[in-house]
Amino acid sequence: MATATVLAPQAVTTILNYHLEPERGGEIVWCPGTVRDKRRPHEHAEVTVHNIRGYEESFTLDKQGFAVGPFDTSVADVQDDAEFKGQYYQDVVAHLKKVTGASKVLPVVHITRRRQWDEVAEAEKDLPDNAPVTAPTANRSVHVDQSYFGAELVRDSKLEELPASEAERLKKVRWAIINLWRPLNHVTRDNMALCDARTVAENELAAVYADLPEELRNAKTGYNFAAKSRSEAWEVKANTGAHKWYYASGMNPNEALLIKQFDSKPHGVARRTPHCAFSAKEDHGPVRQSIEVRCLCFWEDQPQEEA
Q1: CA 260 to chain centre
Q2: CA distances (Å), origin 176, targets 74, 106, 203
Q3: Could you tell me the pLDDT band of residue 82, with boundaries at 50, 70 and 90?
Q4: Do 269 and 73 form a contact (C-beta atoms < 8 A)?
Q5: Which domain holds residue 90?
Q6: Does residue 89 fall inside a structural domain?
Q7: Beta-bridge partner residues of 200
Q8: 225 assigned to some structural domain
Q9: How many angstroms from the chain centroid is the CA of residue 36?
Q10: Which of 23, 160, 272, 281 is most buried (CB neighbours < 10 A)?
């Protein structure tokens, strides 16, 4: 008997978790790496997420803020940290240089996710808010990993590893933070939703402040700001009439999703991309597993422009 093929819909309807204003019970302190992170209150909004399959080439880092395409690597999985930071980081650097034209790419930090959000939330239900997470999971709140200020913290922390003269030179050129997200298995659930950066106004970005205790910066929680003490991210205020959401159905390990978190170029390009994982009634199959690498990209032939 032939196996039925499950076709991904061209659009799905789901509920996304947007920023909830503090006066309505929301919080401006973010606790990544702790159980509290899954319990933070949000504003829930119904949205339509459109499938970009067949139209991938129409979506670019500089236009919408994200891109999907083939990714070549000899590292099938990431069980060995030394191999991962060696060969896999090299493959990520080569890919980002090819796609973006950046002349220098510095991997900053990575996170591996192998557990389902609901499963982990259930396992943690009796733990106190300040307990470390039992495993990293997909992030189901609409966010940008760094605000403009938070991006500078990440850059400056990483550049401290370089000679002072090189660090100062790199601070004078265009730079960006781009994440390379790759599934470790065929994705049939918890797809990544990506918002067209052009449809999100600056005043819809809400800063949330995070402090990650040193004891939580480890492989168990999977969280590391790549900044010395604190960070600042963005959540997004709901504006469902304006925001345009997309996803790439059925991603495989031979593909990568690039997500721009920050771009120092002040005009003419997408500067930040709100995103999150989402659940939908069409979800099926095994837990989504993924690896994400955060990278600093520099265009040494492009001087930094004034905002």
Answers
A1: 8
A2: 26, 11, 21
A3: low
A4: no
A5: 12-303
A6: yes
A7: none
A8: yes
A9: 19
A10: 272
